[in-house]
């Protein structure tokens, strides 16, 4: 049996007390240490568990992240060891998830993924703690949050299912640019290089994510949209669902998840914009036809919503009540009906700059009752709520005779500081997009699937064959390969 001191010496061997200034030196040292830890876990895992409490008290989770991870893995995977005090080991798990060194844990591979999956599956920690820990871990590995991983999907499911959405937002709000695929073949690149795009160090090969299929990507956006709906953040919900609506399905196909997202996208659009727009131009034509057929009740509801005919809107909502129930969209439809009068009030600013509260009451109706509100005070309260929520830019004024008016205001003029801040934020976004574009071009240019596609196109042009504009590179790929390196940044 190994002694405590032997374990301490081995676990404290990395990083060495002297600074590792260059990537090559750090990479070699990290690989060697990871190999030693792997051997310990394979041959002496039980001994490691015996000394786990003492060892974890000696190690620094930030400085000795890989060693700390090895002890946690031995103590918790596949299930918490009976010899370890549960409260102690789980508190150390939380500390690790919040503090580990993301650069060092790029070499943690499957051990880190096992721990993140155990947390994400809700087996170890209370949901509120698990969501915060998992979100923190995801961003420590990839501060940009730009690469979609299997841990993202676990986080979204757990946060939505347990109604712990707020702590997941730092991850969920990040726009996805990369998808996990095969690692780059350039041997001069090191996992520890802080300039690497995340797709070059987070992959199935490095063990930091499981492989994602197209259904996983679709599920992630659908769940994100539902999370935003739960928070009544309709614009973000609409954008999340739109990712599914415009997804490049193979051969113009359309999955059930895409249809579900289309229906929710229509409802979220009504709540965010007060109207439903046609499917984006980048949506495949065949897919759009399927949407139109399977989502007809939703399109009819949206068409009525954009008019002053409240009775027609109520009829559409009532006659397709079974559809909303079957699709699980009753709550969203109720939100749409409740918002109808607010959007009719907003539409008045296209005609008036100032209008009395009494006139607003006579000119707008509630879709929930089909009638005007009973009192001017009810209309005033509705308008005040719209102003407070930021939906309406206006004020309620009172004349000398006591008559109250709604004064629509011009759009807010931003200060120079606000404009400068927006420009700075835009510059940061553009910088990240340029990096992503360059990485995508580099990897796509080396993809055998893309090269085959270019050769096929060259032959077609030479033979004079007409190209079907609805067909493209994506039609050459199988579903399970869509997240492979050919379409990865």
TrEMBL record:
The keyword Cytoplasm applies. Keywords: Cytoplasm. The keyword Cytoplasm applies. Residues 53-283 form the COP9 signalosome complex subunit 3 N-terminal helical repeats domain. Pfam families: COP9_hel_rpt. GO terms for biological process: ubiquitin-dependent protein catabolic process. InterPro entries: COP9_N, CSN3. It comes from the Eukaryota. One of its GO terms (cellular component) is COP9 signalosome. PANTHER family: 26S PROTEASOME NON-ATPASE REGULATORY SUBUNIT 3/COP9 SIGNALOSOME COMPLEX SUBUNIT 3, COP9 SIGNALOSOME COMPLEX SUBUNIT 3. This is COP9 signalosome complex subunit 3 N-terminal helical repeats domain-containing protein. The lineage of its organism: Eukaryota, Fungi, Dikarya, Ascomycota, Pezizomycotina.
């Amino acid at each position: 049996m190994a002694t405590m001191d032997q374990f301490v010496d081995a676990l404290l061997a990395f990083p060495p007390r002297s600074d590792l200034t260059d990537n090559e030196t750090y990479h070699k040292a990290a690989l060697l240490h990871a190999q030693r830890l792997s051997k310990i876990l394979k041959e002496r895992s039980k001994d490691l568990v015996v000394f786990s409490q003492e060892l974890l008290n000696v190690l620094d989770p930030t400085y000795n992240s890989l060693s700390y991870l090895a002890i946690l893995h031995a103590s918790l995977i596949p299930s918490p060891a009976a010899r370890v005090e549960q409260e102690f080991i789980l508190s150390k798990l939380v500390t690790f998830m919040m503090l580990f060194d993301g650069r060092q844990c790029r070499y943690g591979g499957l051990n880190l993924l096992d721990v993140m999956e155990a947390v994400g599956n809700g087996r170890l920690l209370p949901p509120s703690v698990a969501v915060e820990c998992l979100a923190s871990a995801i961003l420590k590995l990839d501060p940009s949050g730009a690469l979609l991983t299997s841990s993202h999907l676990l986080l979204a499911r757990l946060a939505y299912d347990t109604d712990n959405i707020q702590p997941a937002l730092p991850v969920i709000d990040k726009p996805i640019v990369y998808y996990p695929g095969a690692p780059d073949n350039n041997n001069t690149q090191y996992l520890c290089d802080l300039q690497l795009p995340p797709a070059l160090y987070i992959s199935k090969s490095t063990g930091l994510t499981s492989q994602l299929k197209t259904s996983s990507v679709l599920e992630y956006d659908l769940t994100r949209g539902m999370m935003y709906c739960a928070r009544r953040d309709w614009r973000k919900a609409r954008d999340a669902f739109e990712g599914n609506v415009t997804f490049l399905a193979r051969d113009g196909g359309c999955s059930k998840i895409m249809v579900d997202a289309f229906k929710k996208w229509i409802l979220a659009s009504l709540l965010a914009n007060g109207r439903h727009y046609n499917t984006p131009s980048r949506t495949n034509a065949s897919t759009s036809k399927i949407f139109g057929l399977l989502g007809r009740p939703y399109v009819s509801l949206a068409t009525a919503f954009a008019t002053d005919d409240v009775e027609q809107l109520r009829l559409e909502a009532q006659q397709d009540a079974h559809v909303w129930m079957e699709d699980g969209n009753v709550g969203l439809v109720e939100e749409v009906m409740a918002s109808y009068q607010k959007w009719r009030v907003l539409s008045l600013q296209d005609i008036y700059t100032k209008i009395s509260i009494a006139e607003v009451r006579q000119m707008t109706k509630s879709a929930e009752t089909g009638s005007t509100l009973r009192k001017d005070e009810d209309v005033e309260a509705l308008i005040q709520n719209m102003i407070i929520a930021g939906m309406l830019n206006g004020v309620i004024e009172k004349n000398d005779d006591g008559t109250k008016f709604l004064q629509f205001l011009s759009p807010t003029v931003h200060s120079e500081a606000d404009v400068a801040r927006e420009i700075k934020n835009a510059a940061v976004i553009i910088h990240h997009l340029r990096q992503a574009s360059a990485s995508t071009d580099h990897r796509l240019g080396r993809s055998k699937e893309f090269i085959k596609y270019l050769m096929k196109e060259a032959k077609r042009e030479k033979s004079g064959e007409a190209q079907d504009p609805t067909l493209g590179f994506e039609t050459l790929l199988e579903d399970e390969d869509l997240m492979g390196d050919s379409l990865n940044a």
